[in-house]
Specification:
Length: 104
């Protein structure tokens, strides 16, 4: 696990771009939980961190595909393939991500 940021640096339901071991990751805080997904839409290969978070997940700004924060599965077209979801641990107010462990 690699320390990415302090939990206090993340705004609730606002994408936060980070690089973990040369892997681009988007973090999304949801209350006291944090989700980490690959920061690359599986449909158009653009950064998900530039999109918005809704009740359905994180939405790609280019074509509107929405990805579930827990599973990485798309819930709306045109994307049909999931994005990777990474293991997250919050310790002592810091957010740690392991890009070698996918949870989907």
């Amino acid at each position: 696990m690699i320390k990415v940021c302090a939990l206090s640096e993340l705004d609730d339901r606002k994408p936060f771009a980070a690089s973990v071991d040369d892997v681009d990751v988007v973090l999304v805080r949801d209350g006291e939980r944090v989700h980490a997904l690959a920061d690359l839409c599986s449909h158009a290969a653009v950064s998900l961190s530039e999109g918005e978070v809704s009740r359905k997940g994180i939405e790609c700004w280019l074509h509107g595909s929405c990805f579930d924060l827990e599973t990485g599965r798309p819930s709306s077209p045109p994307a049909s393939e999931p994005v990777d979801v990474y293991a997250v641990d919050i310790r002592d107010g810091d957010v740690f991500v392991d890009v070698t462990v996918t949870t989907n």
